[in-house]
Amino acid sequence: MKNPKSIIKILKAISNEKRLKILKLLLNGQEYNVSEIAEELKMPFQTVSRHLERLRSADLVEFRQQALRNYYSVSDINEALFCDLTKIIQKYF
């Protein structure tokens, strides 16, 4: 079981509509770099980058670096949580 502080961090991370949209995109199982996410969701690059950092700090997304780009995907750490979140996100967004 996660400690209360990590649960609060997760809830704060998903309390933003833009971050939920980013998560919804990443929940399809593919990796995306910041530019691809920005283009897909029609958001500024800097906004996407900032929101990804918030999601990453809550262990909701992870990244791998390839050359000069970071590729983001859903974190395996919270896989069970994502099963429930996926249902909620798809229902409302």
Secondary-structure arrangement, i.e. CATH architecture: Orthogonal Bundle
C-alpha Rg, in Å? 13 Å
> What is the count of DSSP helices, taking H or I runs of 4+ residues?
5
- Structural class category: alpha+beta
- N-to-C order of helices and strands: HHEHHEEH
Largest sheet: 3 strands, antiparallel
Helix content: 55-70%
CATH class: Mainly Alpha
Tell me the fraction of residues in β-strands, as a range: 15-25%
CATH superfamily name? Answer: Winged helix-like DNA-binding domain superfamily/Winged helix DNA-binding domain
Query: Outline, from the CA principal axes?
Result: globular
**Could you tell me the number of beta strands?**
3
| Low-confidence runs | none
- What would the CATH topology be? Arc Repressor Mutant, subunit A
Query: Distance N terminus to C terminus?
Result: 28 Å
Mean pLDDT: 86
The strands making up the biggest β-sheet line up spatially as: 1-3-2
* Overall structural domain count: 1
